[in-house]
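Ticket #4471: structure output looks truncated?

Reporter: J.K.
Steps to reproduce: submitted the chain below (418 residues) through the standard prediction queue, then opened the result file.
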Amino acid sequence: MLRTPTLLLTSALCSWASWPQYHGPLFDKSTATTLSASRQGWLPRAPSWTQPTPLGFSSMTTDKNSAYTLIALEDENGLLREVCLSLDLATGAQRWKSWLGLATYGHGGGNAGTSANSGGDGPRSTPSIEESRIFIYDSQMVLYCLSARSGEKLWKADVIREHGGTNIMWKNASSPLLVDQRVIIYGGGKKQSFIAFEQSTGKVAWKSGSEVPTHATPSLASIHGRKQAVFLCHSGMVSVDTQTGEELWRQAFPFKVSSAASPVICGNRVFCSAGYGVGSALYEIVEKNGVFRSVEVWRKRNELVNHWSTPLFYNGYLYGIFGFKKYGEAPLQCVELESGDIQWSKEGFGPGNLIRSGNNLFILSDDGQLVVAEANPQRYAEHYRKKLLSGKCWSTPTVSDDFLLIRSTVEAVALPLD
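Returned output as attached by the reporter:
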């Protein structure tokens, strides 16, 4: 049975108390260590605080005593703009807000502030944090570096204007990937689709590739001892060396309309999935004499579809919300990685999202229900379910040292971990 690898992928591994990037401190949607013994039987109680988070699907990230997310507000001229919001982790009080670019999305459809689950506008990406800096890749493909203390803009890079980028339908939704004092994004033009910037200065460290981006955030992996960023592009998956941008391997995979779930790293195997009739696949990444290649393990056409909810891998199994346009209905499923067989399925979550700490799954349904269940391949075991949020929840829960954070297109809630 495949086991979840322990990967020390950052130059200085963040404390488990923080959730510094979209996919968490270990890039696998889990806490860096299990909740303490006193919290193993933890179930949510009354929220510590609730704060408005109008519009959008940005998740929360945390570092030290602050939480960050993107919202959309009208500026003094009545124009809707994306805003990075910093909240005090203990109280929810606003520390600062930083105004970014215009919040225009083309045709998101629907009102993101209502409970209707189809369509909606607002920021789609999530801030990333390292040391004293916040990195944001907004819907207009502008990369910002902000001061974590004040929200002051330290530098920015306009990928469309400066690197030949072209935005995609529904605009950018991918979040910045931080590794080894660099911030990696994609979306540039020919020979600069993948770009690494120095975190401190914004100077380009390397750029490579000629790919069309998708809405999926790149994944970080260490495969056969080589640190690499894995992108899901129109052509399929492309993996590049994080130090140089050199392409290591690629795997063709169909694209139709939008691919938004990130590749899932499972040791030396990679799972990917997309909607619109595409389906899913598992690939083995093999290496010989420094040369990498991808070998198909299995492929399921229009099955095990992740619309945009990236599953997580744990002890030989995938746990995730599967289904396409099944708003309010999409099931949480446990899937054996080796075979792609569904072990169990529980309907009624919709395209929400989930994370893991130890054997606990924290699941947020698209209509604002928080569910605590076991990461147990033998059966679905639910320990808690309660509706805690109004609005629409297409974001991912976050665990910090003292709180579980969830948000919607209307509000954010902090639940104490004690």
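Triage note (M.O.): checked the attachment and the full token line is present. The two ends are 34 Å apart (CA to CA).
Status: closed, working as intended.
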